[in-house]
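User: Here's a chain of 528 residues. Predict its fold as C-alpha cells.
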Amino acid sequence: MFEYRPAEHHFRADPSRVSSASVNAWVGVLSEDGDAEHAPEPDTELIDRIRALEELKAAASAAQARAAAAFDASQRRKQALEGVPRDKQGWGVASQMALARRESANRGGRLLGFAKALTQDMPCTLYALSHGKISEWRATLLVRETACLSREDRQRVDAEVAGDPELLETLGDRQLISRTRGASYRLDPQAAVNRAAKAASERFVSCRPAPDTMTYLTGLLPVAQGVGVYAALSREADRLTAAGDGRTRGQIMADTLVGRITGQTQADAMKVEVQLVMTDRTLLAGESEPAFVPGYGPVPAQWARDLVRNRDGAKAVRDDRNRKGKGESRFRENAGRDVDGTGDAPPGGTNRGRPRDRSDRPAKDVQTFIRRLYTAPETGELVAMDARARLFPTSLARFIAARDATCRMPWCGAPIRAFDHVRRHSDGGPTSLVNGQGLCEACNHAKEAPGWSAKVIKPPGATSATGAETGAAGVAGQGSPALPAHTVETSTPTGHTYRSTAPPLAGAPVEAGLSAVERIVVDLIRAA
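Assistant: Prediction complete.
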C-alpha cells in the first residue's frame, strides 16, 4: 500500500473548458520550460512538479478517452445518415484515432475499446483517472480484467474496486488485478470460464526482429500446450547433453524446435527465400553500408556478403562484378549456384550445397532462393514496374514489399498483408509501382471506408515520381536527376491529412539531407 501527500500549493483549480487550443498552449509552455535557464529550484518543488505532471498525464488520458468515445458516436451517426449498414457503422473510426495518437491501427482499435468501456460502463474508474488518482495503465488493467462481464456486473466491480479513489490510489498493479479478479469471479463465476475459452481462441505465433540478425519467435498457447512444448524440448536437450552433444542446452532446444516444426533432420536444412537489398559497393567493394532484409530491417554489410557468397558462390559474385559501374537499378531473381561456384543451379531454381558437419558449412539439403535487389548509385531508387491487371503480379508485389518494408500507414509498422492501389483501381488508378503501397489488413480495410482518399505526392521541383506510372520499367542512368522518395498522402473523413514516405534503402544517397558544408566534408572524405 502506498500513499502520497502533496505540498499545500500542489493543486491549482482551473474551471476553463478544455479545447485543443488550450491544450496546445500548455504543450508550448511545457516544451519551452527546459530551454530557458533558471536558478536552482527547491527539491520539494521538483518532486511536486513531477507528481503534478503525472496527474496531468492521467487527466489527459481521461480527456482523450471522452473525446474518442464522442468521436465514435458522432461518426456512427453520420454514417447512419449516409446509409451505411448498421454492422459497418464505425468503419475507419479506430484508424482515424490511431493516426491522431500516432499509433498503429491495431492499437487504435484497443484504445477505442478502452475509451468506450471507460466512458459507458466504468464511471468510478473514469473519475479516478480524470483526477489523477490512477494512471492510464491501471485504468486499462481495470477495463481488461472486467472485459468478460456483463455491463451490470462490470459497473458493480467498478463501484467496488474504484468507488473509493483515495484507496484506489494506494493500490499497485498486482493488488489492483487481484481485487478486480476476485470481485469478478464472485459476481460471475462463469465469466472466468468464458474468458479462458476466449483466450484459447486467440492463440497465435509471431516473429519480431531481435538484435544481431536474430529474431524472436513467440507463441501464445493454452497453458497445457505451452508447458508440454517446453517439457518436450527440455527432455530432448537433456538427452543430447547426456550423449555428449557439444551445443549448449539453449542451442539444442532452439535447433530442436526449428527441426520439429519444419520436419527437417537439421535445424538449418530448410527451404529458404531471402531478399537482400544492397549496393554493389557493399557486395563487391567491401564497404560497410548496411544491407536491408525486407521483413527484418538493416543487417551488417559483412553478414550480407557472407550470406550471398555462402549461398550463391564465387561465380555469382563474378557475374555481378562484370555488371558493376553501369549506373542502373537492377531487379534480379537469382536461383542459387553450387557452393564452390563451379556449376549452374539445378532445375527448379534451387541451390543445393555440400554436406556439412557441426561447423557452419552449408548443409547438403539446404535449398535457398536468394533474391538480390540492387539500388542505383546516383538515386538509391529501385527499378519501377507496372501491370495491366487489377491485382498486383507476384513480382511487382514482392518489389513493393521490398520498397515499403512494413505497412505504409503512418505509425503502423505492421507486416504487409495487402497490396493497395493508392488511387483506387475503380477510379482509374493503374496497377503500378508508383500507385501501389503495402498495407496491413486493418489499414487496408480502413482506407476503403467512406470519406477516405489517398494520392501520390510529387515533391516540389520533381519532374517524375518514383518510376513511371506506365511502362514496364524505369531506370536512372549516370547524371540523371535524383528521383524523389515514394510519398503517399492519406486524407481522412475529418479532412486531416497524413503523409508517409517509403523508408530509405541501401544505396540511398547519404548526402541528400546534408548542408553545403557537410557535402564538402563528405567529398573530402571520399577523396582521401
